[in-house]
Amino acid sequence: MDKEKQQQQFSLHENSKNEGLEFFRVSHGEKLLTTNQAVGVSNTDDSLKAGVRGPTLMEDFHFREKLTHFDHERIPERVVHARGFGVHGYFQAYESMNEFTKAKFLQDPTVKTPVFVRFSTVVGSRGSADTVRDVRGFATKFYTEDGNYDLVANNIPVFFIQDAIKFPDVVHAIKPEPHNEIPQASAAHDTFWDFVVNTPETAHMIMWLLSDRAIPRSFRMMEGFGVNTFRFINDQGKARFVKFHWKPLLGIHSLVWDEAQKLAGKDPDYHRRDLWEAINMGEYPEYELGVQMLEEEEEFSFDFDILDPTKIWPEEIIPVRRIGKMTLNGNVDNFFAETEQVAFHPGHVVPGIDFSNDPLLQGRLFSYLDTQLIRLGGPNFHEIPINRPVAPIHNNQRDGYHRMTIDRGSVSYSPNTLQGNAPLPTPENGYVHYTEKVEGQKIRQRSDSFMDHYKQATLFWNSMSNAEKQHIIEAFHFEVGSVMDKGIKQRVVDMFNNVDGQLAIQIAAGVGATPPSAPGGTGVTTSSPALSQENTVMNPRTRKVAILLENGFNYQDISQVMEALKANGLQAEIVSKNLGILTGIEGQQLEVGKNYLTTASIKYDAVYIPGGQQSIKTLMLQGDALHFINEAFKHAKTIGATNEGVDLLLNSAIQGVAMAGTDTQDQLITEMGVVTIRNVTDINTFSQEFINLISQHRHWIRQNKKQMIPA
Ligand code: HDD
Asked: Name one GO molecular function term (predicted).
């Protein structure tokens, strides 16, 4: 690397990581084919043989190189979080956090620190589906001027277990069963629930896992949580406990279970495609970084232990302060080089951020480095371009597999006089571990303060809206309903009776178990509004609308709606029986985006049916179109129709459920998230109402009607 490049790489600005990567980027278009030794290749389609029908010759070095490279082009997938998707971006602080931390990237609001984020699912293999019920990983690498800082977070704020020594157990239990490797990417099987009923500390996390949080609508619409308790250290050496949060500006939104399952088949790449496309369109996802901070003296002020990773710090008690914003604005050039090879580690901290004695965190600090050694094949993985800090590296570490750096000089030890003891430690600026006082006997025991496993699970349950509660019950019915062992099912009912009596009764009813005999619950009656997705930001930007269309459509309808959608940042796509061009009543032409084979209602947030007698007549005869509407209705999505379009809705299964009066009246009618208007040319009021309904994400008021819809 020449000096100029080196300088560029080390000066911190929004683009400094990108410039560092530029050095390694190669394009192959309009280039001549060579071997890895840069020798020109004359033919890459026929191996060198002894006679045209004879055996291949050993001396064919091009053949051997090509096959050998291919044979070795897989590395072990991550033991957890194998399926993921990475993107570039930057972080900018809102204000100096100097009072609380000396972390450089949190000092100056004019500085843009480059980041790389990898979103993931936990359980499934690299090729599994995106929309499975699972925790989502949300790992961020900040390339700061003081070195790399990794915030290795999840979209659920608590964890299954309290002590890292149980991590292999919980992962073995939830992964596919070892004898037959079934099921893929799912907790719905005996070994996992066997572990759960034998491990009461999982109760709180299970409530989250079975809630809508575990089936997000988009990586762009979920929160992130550092889970573990960390410390902020300021330049006077004062420490405070801290928990980290990411708050998505688009709000927190989820799929429904039936939709998530169907998407897993129809578009297993749903989440990565959503993120890839949003960034390519310039709709950059944004998340605010939030912190909850506690003074050291407050450590014992709560009815939970602040070091217990199965507990949240309720936001109403300890507010989240939003201290900066991350913008994700760049897709990768190469999935393997960047997303697969990126290596996160909660132990990658910078001065100003330190650890706590959270026993889960303590174990994590060992596991991540260890796993990279096997996954990336040795101790030099920090030299892989995506992992390189933008700040310079100088130390006496040498050699090992895949060493790229050419370290000059004879000195690779310390202390030394030959090099003036360089590279020198810097007591003033270097990382100093917080001098926490610790004393105690060596003991394998859980603290009594970690022993309540149910109160916050009740708090979570109390905080859910009716629809969210219903989803959790249905999730129990699916998950525990998939368990074969009757004893385990019964123990699930009994275990969750500790959380809430009604919940346990309802679980029992769906899984063929006996309702609990003892009264249930913890006595907790409070709730935390921050836990419910009902209270999140409602924003229609980037939502996708399907427009069902055939020849003979009313152009005036569709053009007005499309314009309004675009003006509000929504996406519209025309769906029809065949791809190609459709013609309106007055000859206007529109191109079809997808047909019923290449898409489905599950890939949209809303459906619109414009008028046009002939278009509607054709649609009425199409089972696919009617199914599209029924399914969207069942999934609680916004549906809109104008003029003759209303007749199509009246022909669908939602007629009689949510269409009162629409066959006779001419004014705007909204019922259960279905909006219609007839006999009008100006449909501006319709468009506004349609967008307003889409911004509400889903219409749970239909919850009890969905059984009636055949889709
Ligand atoms: Fe972990 C990966 C998040 C507990 C051991 N973890 C991994 C990733 C995320 C998390 C987002 C994927 C990183 C990437 O995209 O490459 N893990 C968490 C959170 C936890 C947690 C939020 C609870 C606070 N993890 C946890 C424990 C252990 C591990 C208790 C072991 C003691 N995690 C790993 C690992 C992985 C990993 C085996 C697999 C691949 C990797 O590290 O790089 O080391």
From this structure: metal ion binding
